[in-house]
């Protein structure tokens, strides 16, 4: 049964599904996560400036890093700075899974790993 999050109750996008994943599935998810995390870190696929979805990093660490870079490189030189912040909270609701799989393949993740990422509805 979907659980209501916020907003207009008639909008299905304002509900989150309940996931009852079996233990073997959770174990497999952790194995895949470990393999992907190792690959990404070992091959420096993600830049150090990436803070979202990274262990030990957050929006706050990103703001601190941004503030530090702006103040040390621009403000200290007497230059004006304008900044804008955007909210992409529903970005991944519309992601193209075929493009995602192509990106995984481009970073040398094998077909077996890519197959594991394919949504259950595609089986």
From TrEMBL:
Highest taxon of the lineage: Eukaryota
Pfam family, one: RVT_1
Domain Reverse transcriptase: 7-112
Stored InterPro entries: DNA/RNA_pol_sf, RT_dom
Name of the protein described by the UniProt record: Mitochondrial enolase superfamily member 1
Phylogenetic lineage: Eukaryota, Metazoa, Chordata, Craniata, Vertebrata
């Amino acid at each position: 049964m979907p659980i209501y999050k916020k907003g207009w109750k008639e909008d299905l996008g304002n509900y989150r599904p309940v996931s009852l994943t079996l233990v073997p599935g959770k174990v497999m998810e952790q194995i895949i996560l470990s393999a992907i995390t190792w690959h990404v870190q070992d091959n420096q696929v993600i830049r150090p400036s990436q803070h979202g979805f990274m262990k030990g990093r957050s929006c706050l660490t990103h703001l601190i890093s941004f503030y530090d870079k702006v103040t040390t490189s621009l403000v200290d030189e007497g230059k004006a700075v304008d900044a804008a912040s955007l909210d992409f909270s529903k970005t991944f609701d519309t992601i193209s899974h075929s493009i995602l799989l192509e990106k995984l393949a481009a970073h040398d993740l094998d077909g077996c790993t890519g197959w594991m990422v394919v949504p259950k509805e595609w089986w």
